């Protein structure tokens, strides 16, 4: 006998930016939708990443929903780069404004989803012992949501406070008078370290790989500026949707090597003063031509040498293992300057690796660092981690984990052969993390919702990507990546941060505008590359 308790038209997994909008759009079409979210509240990434200093590196006026004109007129962002707290407040507001909460079961993790060929429906199971069935399965599980903790001997023996930036506790964490260790110097570590250093007695930064980082130049937004943005939102959003990265910015019309040195410096000065990771896009050839990249790299390295007083420390903070921009450039607030403080110490793990963690602290090959509090800013099993933690089974009981054992294989990042009526939002094979995640999520959800309309209008029960279409799309994604410098970095884009994970460049590098046109074209051609049944 079936153990299904409830039947829905669609199950949406996740209540982050993508999941909330998916519930909104599918419900607006009259579908019975059930959302599941493992956290106790909505917000996804912005619910969990409440570490000190957490803020978005995309400008708030762009990193916000565009689907609701009244919302974007009513909501006023206070700063150029919004804090985690403000973004979470915004997402809570959207959930209430559109009455999305009743569609969700919170504190409920989806553990398994299985496609039943006879009924053409998905059976979805949760860790609260719920079993429901749905025609459509929408996986809005997040791209950077499955946190990783490195396997360091003795890790769990640490007797002080221990936190991961990506699953920061709800309660306030005090650093006053404490000896704090931070492992990891990606975006999360680089944002956390200066804020912790303001109050901690001592901060010890355990750095394995240095990263490029550009000052945010964050500031409050004036009422005049906000009014101007709101008056021009329609055009700003139009330009963002057709852009490569989902914001209305464009690089210099000529390549870095096509202009003279004075012009190059003038442009880099402009982007440095403007602040933030978009420095990677000053010139169009920065991430495709190594000599062009070198000019950007050398510019930023000179800035790091200016910012850090101790030249020996400055050299250790300069990356030497990847072209600039092939890992996400960090957008920071006073990061390099933090090393000028007396209470901040850099431990270079390339020279003196960690040998163990003990109840009292961290032992490296040459010293013991006594700590009261240890922060892991060690990142995520990106793009596939949140999917592979669910036991997803398609036709013939095929497991998604097995299908992707040599790397993720999708059609348009949206669909997987052998998994009918299942959609992934911002998944591998889509622009995802390489563009403004709010607009990429809206694009995916809009496409999925139109597809659901089409199936209804044409009395089609199932839609499934063909193996051929998947093979072609994977080849297209690989070709795009191979034409750039991105594969030269051991980044999480490639899965390189997870031991044993296949090295496949996961995001689609052709840009959001081009990607949108491809998806629209596929739909206009009667869902080319899909089998409709
Ligand atoms: O994670 P990461 P993150 N011993 O993987 C180190 C987005 N984001 O959470 O490079 C010692 O980048 C690891 O070292 P290495 C953004 O897209 C955005 O910081 O592997 N160290 C690295 O330094 C970002 O790219 C925002 O040698 C170890 C660090 O941990 C993405 O999320 C804010 C180690 C992990 O860096 C991920 O950023 C935050 C070990 N055993 C995040 N294992 C904004 O919008 C790992 N590390 C601003």
UniProtKB/TrEMBL annotation:
Keywords per UniProt: FAD, Flavoprotein, Hydrolase, Monooxygenase, NADP, Oxidoreductase
GO molecular function: hydrolase activity
Top-level lineage group: Bacteria
Extent of the signal sequence: none
Cofactor(s), names only, from the UniProt record: FAD
Family of this protein: Belongs to the FAD-binding monooxygenase family.
Record's protein name: Alpha/beta hydrolase fold domain-containing protein
Organism for this UniProt entry: Amycolatopsis rubida
